[in-house]
Amino acid sequence: MVVVAAVYIAIMFLLVKVTIGGKPVVFRACDAVSWKGGNSYQKFIDFDTKKKYDILVLGSSHAYRGYDPRAFKNNNIDLFNLGTSGQTPLSSYFISKNYINANSCKLVLLDIYDGALSGDGVESTSDLIQNIGSTKAAVEMGLALEDPRAINMLTVRMLIKNASPMYVDSAYVYNGYSEKRDSVKIVDKKWYDFTAKINTKQVRYLIKLISYFKENNIQVIMLTHPAPKEMNRENHKKFAEVVNFIATEYAVEYWDYEFKHNLDSKNDFFDGHHLNQSGVEKYNKMLIDSLKERGYLPLK
Q: How deeply is 125 buried, as exposed, middle or buried, from its count of CB atoms within 10 A (0-12, 13-18, 19+)?
């Protein structure tokens, strides 16, 4: 076993050091290993673990492209967006466990949509293993994934730990948020027939995540942000039933804005399910108004 491990590390070391077109060969040779850099890398550099924010956001690209800290700042609310690409409840749990406690914030907004409970978590875990600051969080996440490819992810992290990021997110603007001003040019109908196949592992981690917040006396609201009104309503209904059941069982609120909005499918989205800046501004105003009406703002 020692010999096998030594040979494996030697091969991975060579794959990291040998480059083609300026990029290490390891990213061609190993499936599911993500590049170091982008929104995820920058946000964990910017996040201040010693500071108490008013609100923290968790979730996938719907989160880091859907909740603009500047809109909240205009209402005297200090928000940091910890959303990352493809983030599932499994990833959210280990981010929270290692970065969020009772002294970190007053409220967590957990953006969750149909895809968040249907994925295996490989995309999110791969991205975070390369970019999250905490090695402990990276290892815990890798082990929880229960996928042999996590060994490659963790090995690459170890070998490129001190390397500079390979790319930057040019859309990154502030406190973990990335801005997108493009709008939908051509509507592809296949976007709107997505059917969530609920992954029981992600459901378990969603419950663990909610329980973690409860144990640490952190308020949490689950949210689904607006989607184009062409989206298949029956498919979303199946997802919403699961989330509503969990919300009821664990006494947390779930605010579903998927179809409760007046956003335009072309002008307020940059693809079939992500908001552009116009949509974000409209949605964030609705959300802030709702937080005020329901007594969450001002934060106590």
A: buried
How far apart are the C-alpha atoms of 130 and 124, rounded to whole Å?
10
pLDDT digits (tens, 9 = 90+) for 44-82: 999 999 999 999 999 999 999 999 999 999 999 999 999
3-state SS assignment for residue 24: strand
Where do the domains of the chain lie? 34-131+165-293
- Which among 284, 289, 295 has a CA at the least distance from the CA of 57? 284
pTM of the predicted structure, to 2 decimals: 0.94
Query: Crossing angle, helix 122-131 and helix 38-46, to 10 degrees?
Result: 50
Residue 129, both tokens: 């293993």
97 φ/ψ angles, rounded to the nearest 5 degrees: -60, -35
Question: Which amino acid appears at position 40 of this protein?
Answer: S
Structure tokens at 49: 């673990």
Q: How many helices (H) and strands (E) does the chain have?
A: 12, 9
- Residues 92-129 have pLDDT tens digits of 999 999 999 999 999 999 999 988 888 899 999 999 99
Percent helix, strand, coil in the chain (nearest 5)?
45, 15, 40
The angle, 0 to 180 degrees and rounded to 10, between the axes of the packed helices 122-131 and 135-145 is 160
Helix axes 233-249, 200-215, angle to 10 degrees: 40
Residue 115 CB neighbours (<10 A): 16
Under 8 Å between Cβ of 50 and 98: no
Would you say how long the chain is, in residues? 300
37 to 27, 100, 130: CA distances (angstroms): 14, 22, 8
* Interatomic CA distance for residues 40 and 46, integer angstroms: 10
CATH 3.50.50.60 fits 34-131+165-293, yes or no: no
Q: Are the C-beta atoms of residues 152 and 58 closer than 8 Å to each other?
A: no
